[in-house]
TrEMBL record:
Name of the protein described by the UniProt record: Photosystem II S4 domain protein
Keyword terms: RNA-binding
SUPFAM superfamilies from the UniProt entry: Alpha-L RNA-binding motif (SSF55174)
UniProt xrefs under NCBIfam families: PS_II_S4 (TIGR03069)
Biological source species: Calothrix parietina FACHB-288
Domain called RNA-binding S4: residue spans: 184-246
SMART domains documented for this protein: S4 (SM00363)
InterPro entries registered for this protein in UniProt: Nucleotide-bd_a/b_plait_sf, PSII_S4, RqcP2_RBD, S4_RNA-bd, S4_RNA-bd_sf
Keyword Coiled coil tagged: no
Top-level taxon of origin: Bacteria
Length: 259
């Protein structure tokens, strides 16, 4: 048996982590691979941290492509081989003419949830501009959405299953840079990495648009460190690399921006 209460002591997403622990207990008991619903990046990060102490079980996260934000976990005993093919996913195409009524990620998600499904059964949504979108879902949702998702905004759509190999995801562009700053404050590092003014960055932090390691950060003075991932809604991500102190006691920081 897993030490459930001990594992739950310091977690933020208690209900979700508790459900994953239950699934892990099932995997241990049945000697089978069990799956979770889709998890958001902060949920996934916390679960992986909690389970890193355990040797009885192993986790494998997969959301259909390497950069997927929302992923399902396959859980199995440590002795059982795990690979991505064991994470059951279906790709749906939501096709329509959005030339005169542009739909956003929020519009597609809203239309899907409007059919009565729950968010936990849906993965990433890839918006394809005027042609519609692709969405990754749990297999049990596919037929229901094919029948019931018929409109997004004012646009009639046809929803149908397609092969995962048809997923239209572009590789993120990567830009590496070095900045020298007086401190490791979030607003200083992020404004340098995203190429915007410090005051604009402070506004974004104040409005809740900035996350560090998938957690919303409200303090511009928060300190960052090597390995931190800074994300701004709609503007990509920034990874903090090696930090070195210069002779003038400033910080030389390696940054990688993903766009």
């Amino acid at each position: 048996m897993l030490p459930r209460e001990e594992l739950l002591k310091t977690v933020e997403n208690r209900d979700i982590v508790a459900r994953v622990i239950d699934r892990a207990q099932e995997a241990i008991k049945t000697w089978e691979v069990v799956l979770t619903d889709f998890l958001s990046p902060p949920e996934l990060a916390e679960i992986q941290r909690v389970f890193s102490r355990l040797t009885e079980v192993q986790l494998l996260a997969w959301g259909g492509y390497p950069q997927a934000e929302r992923q399902r976990l396959a859980i199995a005993r440590a002795e059982i081989p795990l690979d991505q093919s064991q994470v059951a996913l279906v790709l749906l195409e939501i096709a329509g003419n959005f030339l005169f009524d542009t739909a956003t990620h929020r519009d597609f998600l809203g239309a899907m949830l409007g059919t009565g499904i729950v968010r936990e059964k849906t993965g990433d949504i890839i918006v394809l501009g005027e042609r519609g979108a692709q969405v990754i879902v749990a297999p049990e949702l596919a037929e229901f959405l094919e029948m019931n998702l018929q409109q997004v905004r004012s646009v009639p759509v046809k929803t149908q299953r397609i092969d995962l190999s048809e997923l239209k995801v572009r590789e993120p562009k990567k830009k590496e840079m070095t900045t020298v700053e007086a401190s490791l404050r979030l607003d200083a590092i992020a404004s340098a990495g995203f190429g915007m003014s410090r005051s604009k960055m402070v506004d974004l932090i104040d409005s809740g648009d900035v996350r560090v390691n998938w957690k919303e950060v409200s303090q511009a003075s928060s300190q960052v460190k090597t390995g931190d991932l800074i994300a701004i809604r709609g503007k990509g991500r920034l990874e903090v690399g090696e930090v070195a102190v210069t002779k003038k006691d400033r910080y030389r920081v390696q940054l990688t921006r993903y766009m």
